[in-house]
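fyi for ur records
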Amino acid sequence: MTTITGFEIIDVLKTWGELEWVRCKAVCGKDERLSRPPFSAWRYKQRYPELESEIVKAVESFQGNVEWSITFTGKNWVIAPKRLQKFQDVRGYRTDGEALRALAKEDPEFGKQANYDVPALADKIKKTVVASQKVPSSF
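which gave:
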């Protein structure tokens, strides 16, 4: 089995443009850390609408162990399991970090299944963008 780091999605994204800001949870393949659902947030230094559209298409069409979402907050992009946002909204957690910790405690198997998806999701993003030929020409 491939070692999961938690940075697979970010590693793919940074090949197409300079990342101005990143936040994700490293798991480094440690079973106790795999119970926390994955979360990747980033923004490019410069926006690339065509590239962003292909990344959205890849995430929305990905079929893995869990359902995934990609959202744009107006400033940053976020890729996370769909269940995380629902969990945060229903429970009223102030931050995604609080929701991640609570979900990991309540359903560690969900976090593991989501983390097992991360390398395949990163690969799906890479293949979708490369096939579309929407890689920014300035990079």
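Residues 9 and 122 are 5 Å apart (CA to CA). thats all i got for now
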